[in-house]
Amino acid sequence: MADIALESLTKVYPDGTHAVTELDLVVSSGEFVVFVGPSGCGKTTALRMIAGLETITAGHVTLDGQVINDLPPKERDIAMVFQNYALYPHMNAARNMGFPLKMRGLPQAEIDNRVREAARILGLEDSLHKKPRTLSGGQRQRVAMGRAIVRNPQAFLMDEPLSNLDAKLRVEMRAEISRIQRDLGVTTIYVTHDQTEAMTMGDRVVVMRNGLLQQIAAPNELYDRPRNLFVAEFIGSPAMNLVVAHLERAGGTVWAAFGPHRLRLEPATLEQHPGLAAYEDRQVVLGIRPEDLEDASVVRDSHPDRVISVVCDIREDMGSEVYAHFNVPADPVATREVVEALVVERAEDEEARIAAERARGGGVVFIARLDRTTGAREREALALEVDVTRLHFFDPDTGLGVDESVTSAAA
Questions:
Q1: Residues 145 and 270 in one domain
Q2: Is residue 62 helix, strand or coil?
Q3: What is the pTM of this model?
C-alpha cells in the first residue's frame, strides 16, 4: 500500500474555468478518504487527475513518494471503479474480472487464482459463469470491484460507484465496500455527492465547493465542528437551522437573542468557543441542529432559559422520529457562503426562498427532529428545549466559525 499526496493540485480548463484550485491533501497508506460536495465542486476532476485521466494544470500528485504526473494511467498502479461498471457484455464475470491481468500477460493459472480469491472476498463464487445482463446491479458492482481487486494495486479510486443502485442496495454496498477496504487495507479515495455515504464510510472526509477545499476531518469532527457555514449547512440531514442572533451580556450571563427568543449560554459553551468573547454585543450566525431540539414537555427538569416557544406548522411522521417544522420570526442568514450552499443543494433560488418566508410572516423556517412520542401537533403551540452545549456560532461576514474567524483576523 502507499501514501497519495496532492500538492497544490490545480485544473484550469481552456475557457478559464477553475475546476480545482491548489488542493493540498495527504492520504495515508491504508486510509479511506471520501471526497464530497455538490455537483461541479471539482471532486471527480481531482480523482481523474490522480488516475491520469485528466491533465494537470499545476501542482503534483505523488504515489508512495514518486511524482506520477507524467505517467500514463496504466503505469500508475492505481485501480479505478467507475459509476457505470464498464463491464464487457460478452464476457462472463470471471473473464471480466481477469481481463486486466490477461492484458498484462499473466499466466492463466495465476489469473484464475486471483479471480477465485476476489470472488471469495466479494461473495461471487456462484456468479463467475454469468454474464453481466443476468446479474443484479449489486452483483455487477461487485464484479467491477473484483476487476480492481485482482490487480493488487497500491490504491483504489472510486467515482460514485453506488449512484446507479436503489436505496436498499446502496446501504448494503456501503457496508460491503467498507468491509472490503478494511480487510484489504488498500489506500482508497472515494468520490460521492451523498453525504450519508461520506459520513458512514470515510476515515476522513474532504468537503469541496467550487474547486476549493472547505474542510478535511473525521466524520464526527466535521459534524460537531464545521469550519464554515457551507460545511455546517451541507453536512447533516435535515440541514442545520441557521439564524442571525445577537450576543448580549446581562448580569454576568451571555445570552443569544433571535426574534422573541433568548438562550442562556452556559460557561461550558463559552469555554468551547473562546472566540465568542469578541462577539459580545454583536451579531453572529447561530446554528442549531434539528436533533438538538427536544420537546420540552418530555424533558425532566426543563430549563426555561433554554426553551423556545413556537407553533408547529408541519408535522412529518418518519416512523422512528418526527420532524416538526416551525417559523422563527428573526433575520435569515444571507451571507454569500450560505446563499451559494442553499442555491446549489437546497433551493433553486435563495432570494425567492427568503422572500417566500417573509411573505408568510417573516422569519426563518426551522426543523426539529423529535422523538416519536412527541405531542407536537400542527397549528398548535410547541415548547422546545435547546441543547445549548451543542450550539454553533459563525461570523456573519466571513462565514467562518467564530473561533477560526478571530484567529484569522489576528493573523
A1: no
A2: strand
A3: 0.88
